[in-house]
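Let us work through a complete example step by step.
Step 1: write down the sequence.
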Amino acid sequence: MPWWASLFLLVGGVFGCLMVGVPVAFSFLFVNIVGSLLFMGPGGMNQMVLSVFNSISSFVLAPVPLFILLGYVMFHSKMAHRALDVVEVWLGKVPGRLSFLAVGGGTVFASLSGSSMASAAMLGSTLIPEMQRRGYSKAMTLGPILGSGGIAVMIPPSSLGVVLGSLAFVPIGRLLIGGVIPGLLLATLYTIYMIAVFTINPASAPAYDIPHMPLSRKILDFSAYVLPLAVIVFLVVGLIVLGIATPSESAAMGAFGAFLLAAVYGKLNWTVAREAFAGTLKTSVMVLMIIAGATGFSQLLSFSGAARGLVTFVLGLDLSPMVLLCAMMLGLLILGCFVEQTSMLMITIPLYMPIVRALGFDTVWFAILVLLTLEMAATTPPFGLVSFVVKGLAPEGTTMGDVYKAGLPYLACDLIAMILILAFPALVTWLPGFIR
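Step 2: predict the structure and record it as tokens.
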């Protein structure tokens, strides 16, 4: 069978299953069973079972459930809510301070949740009602939540980054640390945009007074409710950079630190623990099932000759490597209009990585570009999951059109960040170089 026919059969089979409503994991499972019988014969099922077992028994995936658990503990214990209140007091009379708080808080809590939807839900439930009450415009209420929620995809602990690293065979520690500077770059671009908006149109965020608080009380509250969260950030990020812990070990330390901090604050109870473990179990099983299916799918692409044929075809095109790279990112953006983030990885990474390695691109740099594209896809219509979360928390009368319109300037900031990363790869590769 020609390589293009094999590729069409396998990829088309997955898309066909997804279009009729079959869950992602079962779509890959069905195509893998049919493909193994077609391309490998009766003995193909044994090989498929072995590949499924090997794909999910890898120690590389250990951080996934631990990072997810860390995020659920932070979310259900509501420790972050009190920290946001403290930071708002420190911002004083800064115009539009709640919007800046959304971006700053989203950047910090990105390193505590690892999930864009969880981060957006936490920020939205805390800040949107207050911003509405203070008379903020819809654009400056919803937009910062949309933008800052997506930062969680970039900054460790990014569960999606661990999944991407395991699928693409990219060092997990280097990939996670490589997202720190791009994540901070996004926050900086969002802040610059908001400063421009508040300068041109002060009415979009009306000024209001806050009760006076003595400096000593501010310092005490900051030390009690904000600094302890920095300890968890250090456990997750700092231990990896210093070479003290592997991603799996730092994930375990971060989860333990979250439980310990919740207990110290008196927020740890049976309800919080039950919801955190139940959410972790459901999400982890879903992710691992998809990884198992995608790994078998990748092997079928290789065994059938589709992957090799695609690489040969692409390298034979009279196009520069950078044009091909941009085409791959565009393909991800288009796919993101219809498919959720994890599914996008499952479909594209087995096709993209052989091409990326053949072109000689740095795999960590490419992986961060993929994560940035996934972050953009989370807010693009009609399938942006973060947009759905924000819509659910938005004031009554808000339409999906309002949500998408509020997110457009932040998508433009994302695009600027992508151009900068393409032009200056050191934005990604510099910090991982310090990992021992």
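Step 3: interpret the result. The first helix runs from residue 3 to 19.
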